[in-house]
Amino acid sequence: MSKIKFNELPLSDDVLRAIDEMGFTTPSKIQEKAIPEIIKGRDLIGQAQTGTGKTLAFGSALLSELHHSDHIQAIVLSPTRELASQIYEQFKRIGKYTDLRFTCVYGGSEIEKQIRTIKRGVDVLIGTPGRVMDLMRRKVVKLDHLVYFVLDEADEMLNMGFVDDIETILSTVPETRQTVLFSATMPDGIKKIASNYMKHDYLHIRIKEKQQTATTVKQFFYVAKPKQKFEVLCRILDSHDIESAIIFCKTKRSVDEISSELQAHNYNVEAMHGDISQTTRMHTLRRFKDHKIKYLIATDVAARGIDVDHVSHVINYELPQEDELYVHRIGRTGRAGNTGEAYTIVSPRELGILRKIERKTNSHFVELDIPSIDDIFNEKIKELLFDIQDVLDRGAQHDFYNVVRDMPKSMRDDVLAALLKMNYDSRIGYDYQDDYAMVKESVDHDRLFINRGKVDKVNKSRLLAFLCDTAHIQKSDIGEITIKRKFSFVNVKKDVTDKILSTCNHKKLNSRKINIEIAQEM
Questions:
Q1: How many CA atoms lie within 13 A of 362 on its CB side?
Q2: Which residue, 221, 223, 184, is CA-closest to 357?
Q3: Sequence-ordered list of residues with C-beta below 8 angstroms from that of 249, at least 6 positions apart, any chain
Q4: Which strand (E) or helix (H) includes residue 501?
Q5: Of 102, 145, 221, 341, which sits most exposed with the smallest number of CB within 10 A?
Q6: How far apart are the C-alpha atoms of 40 and 205, rounded to whole Å?
Q7: Which string of DSSP letters, residue by residue, matches 112-136?
Q8: How far apart are CA 365 and CA 342, in angstroms?
């Protein structure tokens, strides 16, 4: 961590007063390195991960150097309405004690109101490329006195196809302006913009954290065949205590498909991606913040604008295309001093990609068994009993005592069980059949099914000893052992499978004959 203090940086007294009021004393690495260079007038590319304080870096530098005038002096472009709004709110806090005026413009909101605000005079214009170009065509936005051009989340700008708009806007501004780009990654498109529109001696500041992923986020993964993934997702949602979750997909199509499927199974879920109107996206985000939506299905681009502290889980339904995007995704949980959990669903063929992400992000992933029907049952019964306790605490059950008294005593247990069954069914979205099909593929192991489980007093150590002693194999030949209620799964090396089947089948384990077979693929 940097030892320098904000008051040691060349910022104005008004900006320093605001930063102190915001509770910041020590700058992040990107802030420490970028602020002095921006104030010197250098064109700059700042490369750092989400959550490192990039907005404060360029915002504090700009607002320290600008003085109120009758022209737009700085423009900040952002890929989405949500991000533009966040930058605007941050600028209001940073510039609280200055006499500078700023506004935020984006599509999906009343353009006439934005026009009136700009005509009254603004020093800093923050907005999305499409709306800025619209206002330029209307002769409302004029950039001939521009001093600073800032492009935030530049990589996402390119991913969303804004490169032509950006180049059009850049072609209208004075060549003397200072250009600042901030981005999490450095695709070729950004290098092209830099070579074409930035001074030849521009500075590239790259901040690479040793520990890229949040230490407050525990990271897990499940291995499932592609056709199993949706059911695995439902099993995760139904077997874990989740306050709210963001579920990530790579494409807009995947977001639409998964959200539609989950809605069809009565999960409280909405979609968020770039093809959804701004008004709908803002309404969805507001409802998510207010706990009215439990699960949000999103693309990486759309999620850049989500700033919600209560997200308890992130679920990667599909792996991201780049390692950095994984860091962005799980950074949506474990915020504001809270802990979070991240689950990733991968096919056996994607394990190598996952391990690469693990190495590059200096993370540690723990593999979990796919949640069983017993796991789901236990979680939902726990929720149900908590809800019952809440009714009892409020005394809301009194109106029903007469119904219970009028019921024959011989029926009461059955009626109670039936009511629990009805309530349990209403809490389950997916129609789970059994656990037998939810077996994991392995390249060098076979997955064996054994028709004995916890009810037969089978445990891992006893089953391991039985297989080794009966088949005369080594403990190292046995992999993961999963004990379910009525059956078990054992991963074994392929070269001992036949030996186990021929020597252990129909032998007695805990005084009961067992049947062993290779678990079938779906």
A1: 8
A2: 221
A3: 255, 258, 297, 298, 299, 317, 318
A4: helix 494-504
A5: 145
A6: 15
A7: HHHHHHHHH--SEEEE-HHHHHHHH
A8: 9
Pairs from 465-470 (Cβ < 8 Å, separation ≥ 24) = 466/504, 466/507, 466/509, 467/492, 467/500, 467/504, 470/503, 470/504, 470/507
Amino acid identity of 72?
I
DSSP state of 439: P
Ramachandran area for residue 336 (φ above 0: left; ψ -120 to 50: alpha; else beta): left
Alpha helix segments (H runs only) across 275-408: 278-289, 300-303, 323-330, 351-360, 373-394, 401-405
Say what the pTM is.
Answer: 0.56
Structure tokens at 457: 């007093």
Neighbours of 85 (CB within 10 A): 17
126, 91 contact by CB (below 8 A): yes
Structure tokens at 350: 């994607």
How far is Cα 16 from Cα 20, in angstroms, rounded to an integer? 6
CA distance 280 to 286: 10
Helix (H, G, I), strand (E, B) or coil at 397: coil
Helix (H, G, I), strand (E, B) or coil at 217: strand
Tell me which residue of 20, 26, 43, 131 sits closest to 81, measured CA to CA: 131
> Reduced to 3 states, what is the DSSP secondary structure of residue 295?
strand
Query: Measuring CA to CA, which residue among 151, 149, 131, 150 is closest to residue 141?
Result: 131
Ordered DSSP codes for 233-286? HHHHHHHS--S-EEEE-SSHHHHHHHHHHHHHTT--EEEE-TTS-HHHHHHHHH
Paired tokens of 467: 């297989």
- Note down pLDDT in tens along the chain; length 522 residues: 447 899 999 999 999 999 999 888 889 889 999 999 999 999 999 988 766 788 999 999 999 999 999 899 999 999 888 788 889 999 999 999 999 999 999 987 789 999 999 999 999 999 999 999 999 999 999 999 999 999 998 887 876 778 888 889 998 999 999 999 998 777 777 888 888 889 988 999 988 654 455 567 899 999 998 889 999 999 999 999 999 999 999 888 999 999 999 999 999 999 988 788 777 888 898 899 899 999 999 988 777 667 677 889 999 999 987 777 888 888 888 776 678 899 999 988 888 888 888 888 888 899 998 999 889 999 988 888 888 898 888 888 888 888 888 888 888 889 888 988 888 888 887 888 777 666 554 456 788 999 999 999 999 989 999 999 999 999 888 988 888 888 998 988 888 999 999 999 999 999 899 999 987 643
Q: What are the chain's domains?
A: 6-206 (3.40.50.300), 217-371 (3.40.50.300), 374-427 (no CATH), 445-518 (3.30.70.330)
